[in-house]
Amino acid sequence: MGQLYLNKVRKHFGHFEVIKGVTLDIKDGEFVVFVGPSGCGKSTLLRMIAGLDDTTDGDIVIDGEKVNALPPVKRGIAMVFQSYALYPHMSVFENIAFPLRVEKLDEARIKEKVEGVAKILQLDQRLQQRPGLLSGGQRQRVAIGRAIVREPKIFLFDEPLSNLDAALRADMRIELTKLHRDLKATMIYVTHDQIEAMTMADRIVVLSGGDISQVGAPLELYHKPENVFVAGFIGNPK
Ligand code: ADP
Ligand code: MG
C-alpha cells in the first residue's frame, strides 16, 4: 500500500510561509505530477513528505498512519533528486546495494535484490562497472535502482531528468512509466516539463505560491484550466 494524505500541511521558514495549508489525497499506485514556478514550494513539500523537513503544522498520513514524527527511513518512502550522488569508487552493484548494507541484510538477499532491480532497469550487464564508465541515463538509472531496492511504497522524484538531454529524457520518461507499471508503487513527480506532466501523470497538481491552484487529470487541466495561471502552465487558453 502507498496511500498518502496531506491534511492542511504548512511550512514556515522564519516569518515566510512557504506552504500555505496544502490538502491532498493521493491514491495507492497513483502517478501524481507536481508543476509550478520555481520557488512555489514543490521541493519543500516533497521534503516534508519524505521526512527531510519538519512540518510547521498539519498532518502527513501514510496508509492511515500519521507519520509526522517518523524519521525518513521509517516512512517507506524513497526520494530521487536531480543531482544524484553515486559513489565513484564503488561498482554499480555496490552503489545499488548500499542501502541494504546499511540495513545489514545478508549477502544472499542483497545479491538477489540488486540483481532483480538491475534487471528491471536494464543494468544487469553493468553491475561490475564503476559509475564513471556509464552514460548520464545509466547513472540516473543506478540512482533510481538505489531508491527502488528498499522496496518503498511511495517514490518522490524531484526533477530527476532535468540534467539529461532531450533524447535521454524521452527514453527515461518511457522507462519511468514502465517502472510505475511494474512496481505498482505510488509516485509523486516534480517537473518543469509540460510533456512529462501531460504524458506521465494520472493527475497533475498545479502549485502556486505554496498553495494548490488546481488538481486534475492532464486533459481536464488542459481543456478546463480554472484560471489564467493554470492555463499558462498547461492549459489550452481560449
Ligand atoms: P521549488 O522547489 O518549487 O522551486 P522550494 O520548495 O525549493 O521551491 O522553495 C520554496 C520557497 O522556500 C523558496 O522561496 C525558497 O527560497 C524557500 N526556502 C526553501 N528552503 C528554505 C530554507 N531551508 N530556508 C529558508 N527558505 C527556504
Ligand atoms: Mg525544487
UniProtKB/TrEMBL annotation:
Its EC number is 3.6.3.-. One of its GO terms (molecular function) is hydrolase activity. Signal peptide: none annotated. It is a peripheral membrane protein. Its main location: membrane. It is found in: Cell inner membrane. It is an enzyme of class 3 (hydrolase). It comes from the Bacteria. Keywords: ATP-binding, Cell inner membrane, Cell membrane, Hydrolase, Membrane, Nucleotide-binding, Sugar transport, Transport. Residues 4-234 form the ABC transporter domain. Belongs to the ABC transporter superfamily. This is Multiple sugar transport system ATP-binding protein. It comes from Rhizobium halophytocola.
